[in-house]
Design a protein that fits this description.
alpha/beta; eight-stranded parallel barrel; 864 residues; 33 helices
Amino acid sequence: MLFTHLLKQQNPLRAAMTTAYRMDEEQCVAHLLEMAALPAESLARITHTAHQLVAEVRKRRLERGGLDAFLYEYDLSSAEGIALMCLAEALLRIPDKETIDKLLSDKLTNADWGSHLGQSESLFVNAATWGLLLTGKLYDQSTVTEKPLRSALKRFLGRTGAPVIRQAAKQAMKVLGQQFVMGQTIEEALKRARNGEAKGYRYSYDMLGEAARTAQDAEHYFQSYQAAIQKIGVAAAGRGVIASPGISVKLSALHPRYEFAEQDEVVPAVTAKLLILAEQAKAANIGLTVDAEEAERLDISLDIIEAVYSNPALEGWEGFGLAVQSYQKRAPFVLDWLIDLARQYKRRMMVRLIKGAYWDAEIKIAQVKGLSGYPVFTRKAATDVSFLACAKKMLAARDALYCQFATHNAYSLAAVLEMAGGQQDFEFQCLHGMGYTLYDQVVGTQHLNIPCRVYAPVGGHEDLLAYLVRRLLENGANTSFVNRIIDDKIPIDDIIVDPVAVMRSHAQKAHPKIPLPVNIYGSTRKNSCGIDLTNVVELNALDKAVAACCQQPWKAAPLINGEFASGEQQPMYDPADKRRQIGTVIKATVEQTKQALAFADVAFYKWDSQPVEQRALCLERAADLLEQRMPQFIALAVREGGKTIPDAVGEVREAVDFCRYYAEQARKELAQPVRLLGPTGELNQISLHGRGVIACISPWNFPLAIFMGQVTAALAAGNAVIAKPADQTPLIATAAVQLLHEAGIPKDVVQVLPGRGSVVGTTLINDLRVKGVMFTGSTETARMINQTLANREGVIVPFIAETGGQNAMIVDSSALPEQAVADIITSAFGSAGQRCSAARVLFVQEEIAPKLIEMLTGAMAELK
């Protein structure tokens, strides 16, 4: 088996969680609607409470003013909001003035700042808008028509203006950052929190930083967590795990390869580090919460959480916790498992119920991977229903859980209050910089006296940037409750609607404008189906199927008119283990090549005369067969092509996409003659047809995808094809042509000839019956083919060549180094660096080169 080390036995609750991950959204929402339902009298009280909360928030909005009003004015649906987000994301980390000037010029000159003048009642907002407007004018001198004034502005920028603007812009971004970041150090954050604690707020500190890219990153984050726990413990002064401030920990910050495929190394390594942090938190008598991350990491996160929580060293401590994302379809099943775990070890676990911060990424990842569905709900109201259903489940298990409800939604808050039934053994949570006007009405003895814990990010400006933008996106989105709650133009009753009623009113529970991944191309063609390599159920099934395919001996030989030609059999070996024979190959001779040409030359006319629709249907059947037999072609790609499992899945999916794409293009371009404009009385038409026999010469690095891309393009256009695969990969090519025959393409229309280029390739390109050549490979071979075709007698022969190159990636100082490193590694080393588009040369701006090269070196050291 190829990945036995990744497979494990699951207990029934974990198995239910895995099944829920693949659950149909309609079915999942129907289940949650039953769970979240409340009696009419409860709904009336919830609505009344929510209405009061929103009304008070709107009343206090103008009192707070300042940055709150600024963020309200520049929401992210506007070009100006997007420009500000770009500045916030990049400006503070840029060390050189030239790039800062270019960024400011790019983002400030193209926005309509003038339209925001006078729109806010806040003096701060209007003053800031004037500053943005004038800065944009200074940078965009083309808007100034008078030459003397333009010259004066240029002199001003050159001497004093640009440095002043740069400093002002940087200072503005720091002010913006302070809205969402508690402090640059844990000491600063603890000091700043004192006023909030006096009002009834609690805090959970997150030492900022995205996932570790290098071993050095992971160690740095680990030490930061340790130092923070020590200082938080001192500040807690023995208040106990509930009343004390706590810490939030990202598991991806503790290991540079925190991913499912590396779990054999990751789980024990991160478990050891998290246990050290948990023991330290226990000694300090504070809480420690494991942050939620992307859906594909949940499974290994739960393995680590179980291993740490069950450790005898933590016995008696009820400060260990984690965040559960209610936008995931698995959320209620995760809670079932956690409740069972807590009861098993007879101590409460802290559970922070959140809605989730990676929704758009989860949707796009599922589409790119061609998954069967989404791990998250596609309607916002469905996430709100899930939140209520999960809250109800948690409150019913307060013997096992200390419940923490993170929401900025007044209706969700009011619903939790109602479901709690007057008991106060729980807390709310909010993000620093968001929701204070809502929770000011909840905390403290003069209000509801229910604590609210603030998720308080801590870190330097360079660390906070990526996080800051995510917070801005959440804060500024038109559909976010934080945005709508302060918009006086929206009636209060419109934003405190029961999400259960909203979802029941939808006949289709999934969002109609977010199609399943298979349907993202609309009605024209299907997306290729992928395999979720982080889902144990799918992985188990794939492992068994691939193992069965690997037991079969594979055969390659000249396949001429549907019959294998005879000849000397040569063994084929696995390139990853050359002791393992995987099949045999018979290489084509000159005579066999000419025999195949004779069949193809005759077959072309009949195939070209077939209706386009018939050819397209054959290709679509081939795509369906490829998906059905994906394990077979994955096995071939791994054993013969030396590919990794993820690359092999991508290989098959790309071949499927080629089949469907060229079927679609044939219908679009070839189905009907196109009438041309001409003089009255004349009828001029153009119609497209095949040219004849096409020689398709494909490479070893993509032995199925490029092979099928060339062949299906030629077949869709009405040509007959003779395919010559690379010497190293004839087995997968032979299986692909057999599949095309099974899909309905005549056996004399597409034939495969494994063999040496000097024999098969040379014979094909010199034969006048070959009317076109498609080639992917070296530039040297392409030149030779081109010269041979140019010297042939008769008409000019089309030659389509894809050859290697020196692809460059350019990284300037505005790039986020962590993201740049991830993309560099993917581009340079994905598919073992054998993509035609792989990065060959990296150009890095000198001001950031030392840091980026150090990070890249560390990340490369983690590659396997």
